[in-house]
Amino acid sequence: MPSACNVVVLISGSGSNLQALIDSTRASEQPARICAVISNRADAYGLERAQAAGIATRVLDHKAFEGRDAFDAALIEAIDAFAPQLVVLAGFMRILTPGFVRHYAGRLLNIHPSLLPKYKGLHTHQRALEAGDREHGCSVHFVTEELDGGPLVVQAVIPVQTDDSAASLAQRVHEQEHLIYPLAVRWFAEGRLHLGEHGAMLDGQPLPSTGHLFRT
Ligand code: GRF
Asked: Is there a smaller number of Cβ atoms within 10 Å at the N or the C end of the chain?
């Protein structure tokens, strides 16, 4: 069994992905252990989820800092106080500076509600509907300096139904997020997932450019 993998989770909101991670690290025999949850918003519901699970929380209000560099420097300090092996972005609604991203190179994961490289940024479900896409989904990726652009680890693909709205799609995509994020974190914690020179590697093999694909 590998030694424990300390994970810090960054949130801004509801934290349903955080909850899925909490549940998976509790339920399964795996080395990932969430040691802290940090939010840039004091009213993020995810903070209550963390407290209910006995996990340390910190709030770092970005509005209290003069600019991104100052905020990210304070964020690094807050995160590194927990000495994590992995930092997980779970609905953290801040654009991170290149310095922050470089500091956590190869140990920073994000989840995004689209089949990247499609629909980087916001309003992904509406954009998929407007484009007439037959498939939609979500992606876990290593974070690099390109927004929503780092090497993919895993994607879940769902069919778009003719009567789907942005809300119904969002709900089904969210269910998939709650499956693939714990899986990616588990792979990392078990020492199976790495960021190699040419992309994400699982068990020493390069992952395809889509990451590992799940279809429902
Ligand atoms: C998710 O849709 C995730 O893909 C995106 O932000 C949302 C966070 O949702 N990055 P929650 O706070 O985990 O419920």
From this structure: N
